[in-house]
Amino acid sequence: MAGKYICMDIGGTKILGTIVDENNNIIFRAKKKTKANKGLEVVEQRMAKVVEELLEQSQIPKEEIVAIGAGAPGVINEDTGEIIYSPNLPWKNYNIKKAIEDKLGIPFFVGNDANIGMMGEWKYGAAVNKKNVVGIFVGTGIGGGLIVNDSLFSGSKYLAGELGHMVLNPEGPYCNCGQRGCLETYAAKVSMTREIKNQINRGRDSILKDLMDMESSVIRSKPLKTAIDQKDALAVEVLDKAIYYLAAGTGSLINIFNPDMVVLGGGVIESLGDYIMPILNRYIRRFAFPDIIEGTEIVESALGDDSIIYGALALAKEKQG
Amino acid sequence: MAGKYICMDIGGTKILGTIVDENNNIIFRAKKKTKANKGLEVVEQRMAKVVEELLEQSQIPKEEIVAIGAGAPGVINEDTGEIIYSPNLPWKNYNIKKAIEDKLGIPFFVGNDANIGMMGEWKYGAAVNKKNVVGIFVGTGIGGGLIVNDSLFSGSKYLAGELGHMVLNPEGPYCNCGQRGCLETYAAKVSMTREIKNQINRGRDSILKDLMDMESSVIRSKPLKTAIDQKDALAVEVLDKAIYYLAAGTGSLINIFNPDMVVLGGGVIESLGDYIMPILNRYIRRFAFPDIIEGTEIVESALGDDSIIYGALALAKEKQG
To answer: Does residue B236 fall inside a structural domain?
Structure first.
């Protein structure tokens, strides 16, 4: 339905809210801490506060908002609005749709953040009109989304697309999820940070020693980019290994799905895409059939940080339409 | 359409033909060597000979055959009947549908053998009425098929489902396909045979030394089963490693697809399923999320060697219907 929408990206640490106008432009933004550790009611209040702030800032009357769309981490039934389970938010078997609609009086729709990000790229970003698409989002961890036969595929129980937890080595390092050798244990920021800190603690020289917060378990993308720009040997080496494994995972997915397109997004690609993509494109030829690769476009996310916002817009328009 | 069908399983070494009656029973069978090395025309003649033999044997007039369905190795456009490429048969960008229809005057439909095997299990076997299914067929190599949202998924260019060529270790052994560490290099008969022969050649004791053909690059399933039944240490060890990697691949696919069901079939499962399945079910818990596994049935093929025959029936009925 045409009109203005509120679109939200609900993360474990912060909630980003936006107002998107009739021309699909983001015209207002507001951000608040999630305060997930304070429990369910506080998070709902924080969400409500973001909405209030957006309405106040914009002076748009609530009645002009067609619906709110949102992406959040976890296993989410997009049809009913039930959050079945979330790793970072205090919700379990909880109907957040009903709770927010009761609180705010605006229709509310929510889906898994990586799936919703994929939907954003598919409806408004890099993958418009593609029939089969694999989306891989590389940040602190690795999330994924799948478009199959012209629709978002969420599997039999809204659990599909856990692409960060494909096994890339059954005898590899343990992942936070309890499995061994997941893609995420090789190619996400947490694993890169572990490797960088281990090497520096062993006396390896690197400009990252001064650039990064050595207490943090997740390096920010900016110092990593600075180190790569300056050809820091440790940064180049660690990123190279991550790209090699990312190529192996991506290649596998290409052999499994034979998609039209693979979209790579997330903070790491956002900051370092120009550096990563050519290397990934070389490595990937080792891990997928030449015939399949030939017909597969491998591209960077077009919406960057806003892919979840635009996916939330697509979800809300689809459900409220 | 109701009526009798001829259903064929076209392999690199032999062609199996059957007549399937109105009640979906296989009432006649005929088998001939493919003679793939003699070229395209000879293979077509062999296919025609199988059909003739079936008609002669059964005394069923050609006019009573509604259509012929077939599964064959390779990249096949199920809609047009074009074989785009086949690793084991002398066809490339060749419309086999047209050729056979011209020769025999019976409608002919063909698809990729692993996909067609999956379709057989889905329409007549273990996965009837399941919405999302992953099929993994373990034999000389490993093939796969996917049912997604209630239909066979063959990807953007009929290349999807190459599940044997998921990468399970980007630094692992080279596969025949040129990639490294494919599932097939760990869990198929070719890799098991290589490991068994290497160990025996190094002086390892095993009853397989007498049971198997040490000149062959592919062990038959029967001696492997005999060795396992007799608790031969080498056979147990080699199969255990294969099952571990098969579990890792299956677990990854469960995390990617969140299917209702995984069907395992092919010669190895056919012979050794009773031994393999309980071990696989234990190992798989290391490689997929508990929540996803909980809702996923992991079962053996119900049709065994006839899954391709029944899939060919399903294809012919669908296309001629």
So the answer is: yes
Position B209: which residue type?
K
In a domain, A314, yes or no: yes
Rg (CA), chain B: 20
What distance in Å separates residue A5's CA from the closest CA in chain B? 30
Q: Is A61 exposed, middle or buried (0-12, 13-18, 19+ CB in 10 A)?
A: exposed
DSSP state of A175: P
The predicted-structure confidence for A133-182, as pLDDT tens digits, reads as follows: 999 999 999 999 999 999 999 999 999 999 999 999 999 999 988 999 99
Helix, coil or strand: residue B287: coil
Integer CA distances (angstroms), A310 to A299, B292, B318, in order: 18, 28, 39
Tokens of A143: 């999330």
> A215 with A156, same domain?
yes
Within 13 Å of residue B132, how many CA atoms lie on the same side as its CB?
A: 21
Summarised one tens digit per residue, pLDDT across range B155-164 is 999 999 999 9
From CA B43, how far away is CA B35, in angstroms rounded?
Answer: 6
The tokens describing A186, both together, are 């090789």
Question: Could you tell me the CATH number of the domain that includes residue A155?
Answer: 3.30.420.40
Q: Residue B86: is its pLDDT beyond 90?
A: no
Q: How far apart are CA A220 and CA B311, in angstroms?
A: 52
Mutate to test the interface with A, among B149, B166, B250 (most CBs of A within 10 A): B166
Beta-carbon separation of A153 and B149 below 8 A: yes
Q: Which of B160, B248, B255 sits opposite A170 (nearest CB)?
A: B248
Please state, in angstroms and rounded to a whole number, the distance separating the CA atoms of residues A313 and A23.
12
**Token pair for B105:** 């005057």
CA A319, distance to chain mean position in Å, is 21
Long-range CB contacts (< 8 A, 24+ apart) of B211-218? B217/B190, B217/B193, B218/B140, B218/B189, B218/B190, B218/B193
Question: Which residue range forms the structural domain that includes residue A74?
Answer: 4-118+306-320
